[in-house]
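Q: What residues go here?
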């Protein structure tokens, strides 16, 4: 029983860590303007297609 409770606690803590990291990544990506390089890539691809 002790091992099961330890595994349960460890799983819950790891899940919380994963959720926290994903939330931080989402907030960081939302805060920084990362759409600009994507637009540059699409413009370059369009120029290549036109050329």
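A:
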């Amino acid at each position: 029983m002790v091992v099961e409770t330890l595994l349960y606690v460890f799983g819950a803590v790891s899940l919380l860590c994963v959720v926290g990291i994903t939330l931080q990544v989402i907030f960081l990506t939302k805060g920084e303007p990362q759409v600009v390089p994507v637009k540059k890539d699409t413009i370059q691809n369009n120029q290549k297609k036109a050329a």
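A: Context that may help when evaluating the design: Residues 2-31 form the longest helix (30 residues). The chain has one domain: 2-50.
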